[in-house]
């Protein structure tokens, strides 16, 4: 069964390895490195048809270096992910999903946090031109667009942040709420034509600030938004140890109970996490999740979770 996964951090790992080579550290190869949860080998083994690759800049990177870090990750996407693998096709437009052939895999660029462009909307427009199709305004920290999910102040969007959402709408780009504060979430939902939670779970099941409350979930579904469950144990059970696929299914059950059976997907967060759900340690293990779902849901519903829901609700 084909999979569309809306979040991984392969590009950050590739960048850190590339920078480490000058100090004699071993390189990481996208094709088959054991250090990558979402290597090309693992993606193929897990039947991942389309993988979203996040550009993520750690908050410790000085402000005047953030754009350079973003460009390095984009360059690695073009050279290592797409450039060296003819079967991996860069999806730059939503219609490109429909052109993938048997044996081909789609790759999508996303941005996790507006830190990369600061308040320079020219840089943001460059990101659109380079093929970024989903933008989350924040990670967990504050930036010029909004507070992040773990910022104690919990503020919403700034004037700049609202302008970014409007630009996303104009370019038919997702606005990702996965790292938004509660106030930021509601600001986004008021403005966004294309909301997505690329990697979030249900807060009723696991009370973590990265998860969504029931009223947020209902509004996402009412706004034609997508919620893609994340595989991080901390957002699944609240404990980094001993999480099982059955625990993840509790979140899917809850989302379905709130009306989302046709708006649920997967956003693994592979290569951005260091603890794993048992039997779901990398992209090659996706079959274990699909097999577990097939025991509880109709095959057509599971196909929806895996890829069809996304295709039905993508921007057009």
Task: Characterise the protein shown here.
By secondary structure, the chain is an alpha/beta fold. The chain has a single domain, classed as TIM Barrel (Alpha-Beta Barrel), CATH 3.20.20.140. Helices cover 37% and strands 13% of the residues. Strands 1, 2, 3, 4, 5, 6, 7, 8 and 9 form a 9-stranded parallel beta sheet that branches. Helix 6 links the parallel strand 6 and strand 7. It is globular and about 50 Å long.
Query: According to CATH, what is the topology?
Result: TIM Barrel
CATH superfamily: Metal-dependent hydrolases
Quick one: biggest sheet? Answer: 9 strands, parallel
The best one-word shape is globular
Strand content: 5-15%
Based on CA atoms alone, the radius of gyration comes out at 18 Å
Total number of helical segments? Answer: 11
Helix content bin: 25-40%
- By CATH reckoning, the class would read Alpha Beta
CATH architecture: Alpha-Beta Barrel
| Helix and strand run | EHHEHEEHEHEHEHEHHEHH
Structural class: alpha/beta
Q: What count of structural domains? A: 1
Mean pLDDT across residues: 97
Enumerate the spans where pLDDT stays under 50 for 5 or more consecutive residues.
Answer: none
Number of strands: 9
Q: How far is the N terminus from the C terminus?
A: 24 Å
